[in-house]
Amino acid sequence: MTVRARILLFASVAVGLVVVLGGTVSALSLRGIRSTEQIFAMQDQQTLYGRLTGDEVSVPHALIDARERGQELGEVLAREERRAEADFAQLRELVRREVDPEALPEELARIEAVRTAHLGWMRRTEARVREAPAGAVDRGLHGTLDAFQAEVKPHLEKAWEAKRAQVARHKYARLKTLGFTRFLGLVIPLVALVVVFALAATILVALHRSSRELLRGAERIGRGDFTTELPVRGQDEYSMLARAFNRMAAELRDTVRQKEWLAKAEAESSQREMRHYNALLEETVRQRTAELEEANGQLLFADRLATVGQLAASVGHEINNPLAFILGNLGYVREELGRLQGTVSVREREELLEALAEAQEGAERVRLLVQDLKLLSRADDAGSEVVDLGAVLRSASKMAAHEIRLRARLVMQSEGVPQVHGNAARLCQVFLNLLLNAAHAITPGAVERNEIRLIARRGEGSRVLVEVSDTGCGIPPENLERIFRPFFTTKPAGVGSGLGLSVCHRIITAHGGELTVESEQGRGTTFRVSLPVHAAGQPLAPGPLVA
What we know:
Elements (H helix, E strand, L loop, with lengths): L2 H51 L1 H14 L4 H26 L5 H28 L9 H11 L1 H70 L14 H29 L5 H69 L6 H31 L8 E3 L1 H11 L1 H4 L4 E5 L6 E3 L1 H17 L10 E8 L4 E8 L6 H4 L19 H11 L3 E7 L3 E9 L15
Parallel strand pairs: 2-4
Antiparallel strand pairs: 1-3, 4-5, 5-7, 6-7
């Protein structure tokens, strides 16, 4: 499998798992909000039914008090009817928000039966109070209470019991759903992390082995050992590069033999024969140069894969953070729903809704993390385009945040930076490499004493200047001139391939820019990237940028 295919496979699996997980959590959060609103609506209905039951005493007393004070009983009755009608209207609205469409007619019919009986009893009570003899009004109160118990109370109790049973069923179903959600929240992230880490480990092991063999072979050839042959496995980019090195070594062996023969025969060979062999040498050099340029493109993918490998742990960590408080909030809602009985307060309702809203916010953070990862995993054969450099810097800083946060504070200024002309994926690769190098130059554990600055501003002329500076250990003066050479690294064997800064330098040069460095041991390092500003009307290159 080629390096490009491995990168795309890793990115596809990681993005797919995150999208599935984020979609599942978002759907469950929305469902939880809807279920909570239904429970609140049911409890509000129970409150209204309790208020209507209280009319058994309040309405007769209001009418009796009005008659004793000489007020018009019709006005009191009209006022009580308006209040009751408002309660019934609120009941109907709550039922429409809470009940499914197929069960809505039955619920409305139950409310209408209660309304008819209740309003009829109120009118008959007003008539009894009006017709009662003076001084015997209070004795008629028992008759109105008995009438309420016989005419209205059965309808109210039927509606109340139906609503209580519905609330109990809904709470039971919701608790089961929350239990299943908690199970999914534990199992799915675990499976996703195992798959991502297993795939990353497989890719990194193969990459590490191939890089080590390639580096050792290159060192032997550099020392003049042209008998070296690199092992060739499969058809991936490293195998293509190994074949090119083997062919180059074979041709160099032939060239050395030819040079030795020419040295011996120089005195006796004619000028014509020497021109022939010189032309042969030039042709050999041209062929080897073309092969190395072809292999150079594969080094870009090798560095990209190494960067993706470094990000594997931080991707899992960044996914785990929002998942932690999503699961915590869902568990809190489940416990609160199991504890609540009867009508809940406004504060408790707001706390439950706030917990569900935070869970939805966590799922949104997972989705944004996927968008940043997709920028780095874009194919390198994409043509040049107008690039929002500020967005590229923000994406690179977010992907490097896990490596930075334990070592230093990140200070970033990129507001108002002009657009440039180039390839967004390759530019993101450059600044991500520079930020990771800055983080690795700082020993973990002293965040407050160290700082990494990412500053972008308009430079002199039509240029954009981006500085990545740190307060790390710095670079020795003897290494400053060699840091952009391929395979040069100060990291321990097997940790770094020495390709990162070399690839960054080639990418920036291909974009018409410059990459320079200043460093002082013990005080820190500053990398400066200068790029041309995109001019309005500037034509876009039809093909890819080749470093």
